[in-house]
Amino acid sequence: MNLWLVLLKDTSLVAVIAFDELLRTAKVAGETEREPFLFFFAAGLLYLLMTWVSDRGRQRLERSVQLVGHSR
Amino acid sequence: MIESWLNTAHFWFKGWHFAVGDALCGPIQGTLPASIAPHCPRFVDGFFTTLELVLLALVLAFLIARQLTAWLELGPHWCKAPIRAYVYVFQGTPLLIQLWLVYYGLAQFETVRDSGLWVFLSSGWWVGLLVLTLNSAAYQTNILQGAVANLPSGQSEGADSLGLTRRLKYRKILFPQAMRAAWPALGNEGILLLKASALVSTITVYDLMGHARTVFSRSYDLWVYGGAAVLYIVLTALITALLWAIRRHGFAPLPTDEWFSAIRR
Q1: Which domain holds residue A21?
Q2: Considering chain B, what percentage of its residues have pLDDT values greater than 70?
Q3: Residues of A44-56 as b/e, b for ≥16 C-beta within 10 angstroms?
Q4: Rounded distance between C-alpha atoms, residue A47 and residue A21, angstroms
Q5: Residue A69 within any structural domain of the chain
Q6: Which residue of A has its CA nearest to B198?
Q7: Would you call B93 and A51 a contact, using CB atoms and an 8 Å cutoff?
Q8: CB contact (8 A) between residue A36 and residue B107
């Protein structure tokens, strides 16, 4: 699960080699609109949303396989 | 005033890097691949730039993380939610976005450009240091807090039975043990930060990766990246050795096995 979260964030690295994913789209849009902060901030929020959803999924999964009487 | 001082420091460090580069590169010139040999001092400069950036960021981040962990354990109730939020946000977003947000994003505001902080925020190196520090501090806070939370409950109970205050219990009993438990994880974080630091090359810092990219764009020889990779491995080995040395000599000694066998007899 940790690996999934790390990989999810590492997908942003392909922006450096000019692949049009979320971060690169945000960069280009921010440059055309002359508001880079806004667009990077929005991209950051979207990534946060994705990790949050993944994290909730993990919690549900953990709860469903948990033994009765064991916390965590 | 600050600017000229920073420039002096910058040129001092660069001069030092290139002096070492010249001294090192002369003798091994013949053994290097032809595409790398003329750029050897650049690699040495990148090597030391990356090393300085990562070590500084790690130390500063550790100091921040130690304080944040202490506040999570001992602090007033209202300070816990903001710290958790900070950790969550910095762990939940890519480092690249954090770097670009601060370096390219903040420059859009005139108040930022006019403020005294602009000296730092317009320099890729300082933004790199700031963001790497904040990012690593978030991860290290998580590691340290987890280590404190996972200590055997007997430690806490034992300290309570001795009548220690909450502060003293944390400082003398819980935190030192948490440090031992957390050290391997902190070391991992250090290695990860080293590799992540290559991203600062996208905000104009000439670290190892930045130099490698420039050299590559001139020679189009893939060996350039191979050479940079080798130097990153050397850096990893250096940091690992440093962590081992601290592990061996920096921690207070534990009762050894001999001590235990002595009281058993």
Answers
A1: 2-61
A2: 95
A3: beebbebbeeeee
A4: 12
A5: no
A6: A13
A7: yes
A8: yes
Mean pLDDT of B223-238: 94
The residues near B68 (Cβ < 8 Å, ≥ 6 apart) are: B83, B86, B87, B137, B141
- CA–CA separation, B11 vs B242, rounded Å? 27
- Position A66 in a domain: no
- ipTM for the complex? 0.80
Q: What angle do CA B237, B241, B245 make, to 5 degrees?
A: 175
Which pLDDT does position B175 carry in this prediction?
A: 94
Put simply, the answer to whether A23 touches B89 (Cβ < 8 Å) is no
d(CA B85, CA B89): 6
Q: Would A67 be classed as within a structural domain?
A: no
By the 10 Å C-beta count (0-12 exposed, 13-18 middle, 19+ buried), B226 is classed as: middle
Residue A11 lies in a domain: yes
Q: What is d(CA B251, CA B259) in angstroms, rounded to the nearest whole number?
A: 18
All structural domains of chain B: 2-26+34-249 (1.10.3720.10)
Q: What angle do CA B108, B114, B116 make, to 5 degrees?
A: 120
- Contacts of the segment B113-118: beta carbons below 8 A, 24+ positions apart: B116/B2
Nearest to B69 by CA among B141, B121, B133: B141
Structure tokens at B208: 């190892």
- Residues in B closer than 8 angstroms to A38, CB to CB, are 105
- What total number of domains does chain A contain? 1
